[in-house]
Design goal:
Largest sheet: none
Number of strands: 0
Shape: elongated
Helix content: over 70%
Oligomer: single chain
Order of helices and strands: HHH
Mean pLDDT: 75
Structural class: mainly alpha
Distance between the termini: 10 Å
Strand content: under 5%
Amino acid sequence: MSLDAKRTARTVLQTGVGVAVALPGIVAASGIPAALPWVAGALAVAGGFARVMALPSVQSLLPSWLRTDIAGR
């Protein structure tokens, strides 16, 4: 799997986790202004998750098709 494909898979996974955290709030919200804090929360979770997945100790726990570090090749 190419490095670009790995990065895409990781981004989809990270964003999916972030949206899953915010989904109850998005469903409960009746309009965009009410959902805005949940969207911000989803982006914050996705960003934090992305940062954690970039740590070398976490990279070693990921399956090979999700690793993006050069040493994992």
